[in-house]
Amino acid sequence: MTITEKYIKKIIPYLCAGENEEVETVLVNGLLSYKFPCPFCSYFVNNPECRNRQLASLVPIEGSYDYKFICKRSGSPECRRIHGGRSFYNFLAMYNPDLFRQYQLDLIREKKS
Ligand SMILES: [Zn+2]
How far is the CA of 77 from the centre of ligand 1 (A)? Predict the structure, then answer.
């Protein structure tokens, strides 16, 4: 498992719509892709049914073990689509700064070893 995959597993429980909702997974290029309600723009939607639609996803980038974040609604500055999606690195920095700091340390540690 790569460091990125390890951190995706850590944040997936936070990305679920509600207690009984599960993050939907789809296999893309042999890697898991995850679908969930967008943590950035779902709050702006008043209709609860629309709010919990799983419009955001973490998708594996072909030919690498990296992931990108895409929100189909693009309803907030954080999830607006730039160059076809944000890197997982940027996504984590915005979504969970504490976990992001650990992620950075792990990446540095991996480079050294
Ligand atoms: Zn969004």
Answer: 8
Task: Return the ∠ at Cα 72 (arms to 26 and 98), rounded to 5°.
Answer: 80
- Structurally, the chain folds into a number of domains equal to 1
**pLDDT, tens digit, for every residue of 72-110?**
999 998 998 876 788 999 999 999 999 999 999 999 999
- Read off the pLDDT of each residue in 29-35 and give the average, rounded to a whole number: 85
Distance CA 81, CA 90 (A): 12
If DSSP codes are grouped into helix, strand and coil, which group holds residue 106? helix
Report the share of the chain in percent with pLDDT over 90. 48
Domain of 23, in residue numbers: 3-112
**What's the gap in Å between 50 CA and the centre of ligand 1?**
12
- Are 85 and 69 contacting, i.e. CB atoms less than 8 angstroms apart? yes
Q: What's the gap in Å between 11 CA and the centre of ligand 1?
A: 16
Q: Which residues surround ligand 1, an ion (CB under 5 A)?
A: 38, 40-41, 71, 73, 75, 79
